[in-house]
Amino acid sequence: MARPASPPAATSQGVKGEGGVHHRQGGTHPFPLAVGRGLRSTFRVLADLARTMIPAMIVVMILDRSGWLARIAGLAAPAMAWFGLPGGSALALLIGNTVGLYSGVAAAIPLGLDYKQWTILGTMLAISHAHPVEASIIARAGANPWTVLAARLTASAAAGVLLNLVL
Prior knowledge:
Blueprint: E1 10-11, E2 14-16, E3 22-23, H1 30-66, H2 68-81, H3 89-98, H4 101-108, H5 115-127, H6 131-140, H7 145-166
Helix pairs in contact: 1-4, 3-4, 5-7, 6-7
Region (Disordered): 1-33
Keywords: Membrane, Transmembrane, Transmembrane helix
Transmembrane segments: 68-85, 91-113
C-alpha cells in the first residue's frame, strides 16, 4: 500500500511546497504591503517638498507680479550673464543657498529657463545650497564653516562659468 504524503515542512518564511518553493501562510502577500509602505513614504516626501517648494514659488510669483523681480533681475543681470542665466535666477540662487536646494529650484520655476539654464542653475545649486543648516553640521564635524562656505561658493561659480562656456 502506498504511503500517504507527509505535510510540507514549515520554515520561517512559510511552508516549503513542491520544488522547494516557499508559500506564505495566512494569505498575505508581501507585494501589497510593500506598495502600501512605498505609497505612504512617497506622500510624506511629497508633503515635505511641498512645504518648502510652494512658499518659494509663491514668493517669486509675488515679486514678479509686483515688479520687484524685474528690479532684482536688472541689478543682478550683469553678474548672472557670466553663468548664462537671466538676472531673476539670482533670487533662485539666493533662496537655494539660504533655504535649501528644492526651494531654490522652486523659485526658478516661474522664470521659464531653458535646458541649458536649468543645467547650469541645477549644478550650481547642487554644489552650493542650504548654508545655514549645513554650516552647523560642518562646525560640529570640526571643520571651519567659513572656509567650506567659500569653497562651495567658489566651486559653484566656477562650475556655472564653465558650463556656460561648454554647453
